[in-house]
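Worked example

This section walks through a single chain of length 118. The input is the sequence exactly as stored; nothing has been trimmed or padded.
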Amino acid sequence: MILDNVGNRPPSRLRGALTPTGVLVANGGGSPGHVFGAMGSMLRLSLVNAFVRQRLRPILPSAPAGPTHEDLLSVPALIEAGRLTPVVERTYRLEDAPAGVRHVEEGHARGKGVIIMP
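Given that input, the structure is written out below as tokens.
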């Protein structure tokens, strides 16, 4: 299972990292300046899903408030069950947080950046 919270990689590339029957869950996507933005990415993902064995699922909030408390509680349960593994690319000291944010904004991040609090 891959949980894509950023959407800065094409689904075809993420699908390559999945098993033949793996699951891709997308929670965002689309580049600034594109007409349909994240919605276009989610629609494209749903369309491709109809033609592949892998399961491609967009997370579309059912209400303007976004995910529910229960939705958020399901993430740690998946991690504890070994079904979801967070990928931490780098850690940053608090004083280096601006460099970490720049790294993510520039599209270089391959995993999560974690800020360590003193």
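What to look for: The chain has a mean pLDDT of 80.
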